[in-house]
Amino acid sequence: MDTLSPPAPPLTRALPYLALAGSMLSFCIGTSYAKRLFPIVGAPGAIAYRVGFSALILLIVFRPWRMPIARADLFATMRYGVALGLMNLCFYMALRTIPLGLAIAIEFLGPLTVSLLHSRRPAHFAMVGLAAAGLALLLPFHRIDHALDPVGVGYALCAGVCWGLYIVFGKRTGHLPGGQAVAWGMATAAVVVVPIGIYSAGAALLTPSLIAIGLGAATLSSAIPYSLEMIALKRIPASRFGVLLSVEPALGAIAGMLLLAERLSALQWLAIGLVVAASIGSVLTAEKPA
Question: How far apart are CA 162 and CA 111, in angstroms?
Answer without folding.
Answer: 9
